[in-house]
Amino acid sequence: MNATALADSTPKAQGYAMPAEFAPHDACWMLWPQRPDTWRFGAKPAQQAFVEVATAIAESETVYVGVNDEQYENARHQLPPQVRVVEISSNDAWMRDVGPTFLTHPDGRLAMVDWQFNAWGGLDGGLYFPWDKDRRIRTKIAEMLGIPRFTAPVVLEGGAIHVDGEGTLLTTEECLLNPNRNPGMNREAMERVLRDTLSIEKVVWLPRGCHLDETDGHVDNLCCFVAPGEVAMSWCDDETDPQHAICREALQALESSTDAKGRKLRVHKLPQPGPLFIEEDEASGIDRLSSSHPRRPGDRMAGSYVNFYIGNTVVVMPLLDPRRDEQARDILQGLFPDRRVIGVPAREILLGGGNIHCITQQQPQSRRPR
Q1: Active-site residue (options: 175, 223, 236, 358)
Q2: Which range is the signal sequence, renumbered to this chain (predicted)?
């Protein structure tokens, strides 16, 4: 089957739905960092971190890394042979947000959603310009896989949503209802789009994402489903920290909600790393451009252990704070007893504005057409 763009028929109407991240995968998709106004010192430190993430996930499933042509040989040399390097041009390396949201059908078919993308706010607070190459990534992956591509009528990044695979979706009002994404849309209108596109039945709205998260509050940095009815969330005990109030709001929203099956949500708290701040030497290696988000010495980073990737047999988590890394790893291992939790030094990814979940996108298990 050839890749087809579908705009006049919804995924729900055709029987497609978005599986949970903890459901079985066929592959994981990533992009290669090289942008000098995002990644310091020509992205060399970030590239090493991406290699470690890709290597860890490749223990569990096939990993594809999309690379701009001028970085192809460098990426192929650095990445292990089991990781597949493919030429996909991009403006930056955030596959979670610029890549497809994959859908599956009960008969085993695979499809994808092509959301609108404006670099986290367009000209009103967006993180870089232009984003034309990023807009074409989903089309290219649909062509490579030969699967249908449903075009969606709203701006939405993959990190803005988490689903349990049983009809429930987590998101934040700060992001999805932000005027720089979808001006004029209210909760009811957005929920209709989410139901028709992802075949979910209930949206659990959290007020805000993590403090100073430059994505305008992506939920994947604050909380996520780890199993049906169970959520992991970043937690701050320091009442003087602005993150404390955000966590209390989110906890109240989660504990007062039920999922699509009527279950009360069980919340597992992960300690917040840090607070973490950009050091002088880290900021000095980044190109300063008027069209990109500034990264200055002393700026606080939105570090979170929730920004992990759930693979088939591994969970790949960021190592961010030696005082709390092991505690977070132990909690995650308890939540995923059948998967091996692998910690990867991830400060270089955080310096670019995100973390492990932000640079990965799972491709669920399916029976694709030949």
Answers
A1: 358
A2: none
CA distances (Å), 362 to each of 68, 146, 281, in order? Answer: 21, 17, 34
Return the closest-CA partner of residue 197 out of 13, 73, 70, 42. Answer: 13
Domain assignment of residue 1, yes or no: no
Domain span at residue 203?
A: 7-364
Place of tokens 């490749």: 58
- In the residue annotation, 223 being an active-site residue is answered as no
d(CA 215, CA 221): 10
In a domain, 369, yes or no: no
Q: Is the pTM above the cut of 0.90?
A: yes
Separation of alpha carbons 283 and 230, rounded Å: 38
Give all strands (DSSP E) within the chain, no chain letters.
5-6, 25-31, 62-67, 84-87, 101-104, 110-116, 149-155, 162-163, 168-172, 202-206, 223-227, 230-235, 266-271, 276-277, 300-301, 309-310, 314-319, 340-345, 361-364
**SS3 label, residue 41:** helix
Residue 217's CATH number: 3.75.10.10
Distance CA 204, CA 220 (A): 13
Work out how many domains the chain is built from and give that number: 1
Q: Digits of tens for pLDDT over the chain (370 positions)?
A: 456 666 668 999 999 999 999 999 999 999 999 999 999 999 999 999 999 999 999 999 999 999 999 999 999 999 999 999 999 999 999 999 999 999 999 999 999 999 999 999 999 999 999 999 999 999 999 999 999 999 999 999 999 999 999 999 999 999 999 999 999 999 999 999 999 999 999 999 999 999 999 999 999 999 999 999 999 999 999 999 999 999 999 999 999 999 999 999 999 999 999 999 999 999 988 888 888 888 899 999 999 999 999 999 999 999 999 999 999 999 999 999 999 999 999 999 999 999 999 999 999 999 865 4
